[in-house]
Each structure stands twice: as structure tokens, then as C-alpha cells.
Amino acid sequence: MRKLLAIVVFLAALSPAMALTPDEQLKDPALEQRARAISAQLRCLVCQNQSIDDSEAPLAKDLRTLVREQLSKGQSDAQIMDYVVERYGQFVLLKPQFTSETILLWGTPFAALLIAGAVLILRRRRAEVVPEAPLTEAEKRALQQAME
Questions:
Q1: Model confidence pTM above 0.85
Q2: 44 — phi, psi (to 5°)?
Q3: Span 110-120, pLDDT tens digits
């Protein structure tokens, strides 16, 4: 049983490495390393939670090929990233840049935390502000009758 578990864990660890097929790899190791670094920063538009380097989706393969073609043409990493963003938008970046277009994306978590904190503070203050009213004479009589 332990051997089977070890094999499953080993294969699961290899699955991202299997996304890149041998026919996609560049012959120049330096260019291939740059291609892998760029691919790790780009989102698979099908999977959305994986980089194109990890994804086996056909579109991810097309994007990996595009990156390698651009590298082969002598483009810099920045030029390739700009080219891909121009074609697919900021969403293709796993870590979008902070711009006026993405301010909502970056600001939403902080705004949610601020709103939640304000709600908690207001609830606590509201609970402290409400004084306890004394019982009326009718309530006192009803209480006394209930206790007897």
C-alpha cells in the first residue's frame, strides 16, 4: 500500500512537468530557460488557476509555442510579455500589474477588509450604547406573579 501511495505522489508531482512536451522545447538551454520563466508568469486562459507552463490545455500549448517563437525571433522577455498582454489583456498575467485598469482588482480585498472591520466596530459600539431600561410596574407585577 505504501508503494502505491509513493507512486501516486510521485506521478502527481511530475504532472506539471508533463505539460510541456519534448517537441515544444527549444534546443538552446538558455532560451528554453527564459521560455519557462515567461510561461510561469502567464495564466492559462482555459484553466485560469494554472500557468501555461503547468497546463495541458491546447490553448496553453499554443501560448507556449507563441512565447518560444518570439524568443527565437530575438524578442526580449519584456517585449514578449507586452505582446501577449496586448493580444489577451491583463487577465493573461498571473500577477497583473498595478495600473488604473486593475485598481479594482487590487483594491477589492483591502476594501472588503475595511468594510468588514467597520461593520464589526459599529456593531460593538451599537451594543454598548443601548442602555438597559428598568422594568415597568406592570412588568414587575407579571414577574412577581410568574415567580409565585
A1: no
A2: -75, 120
A3: 999 999 999 99
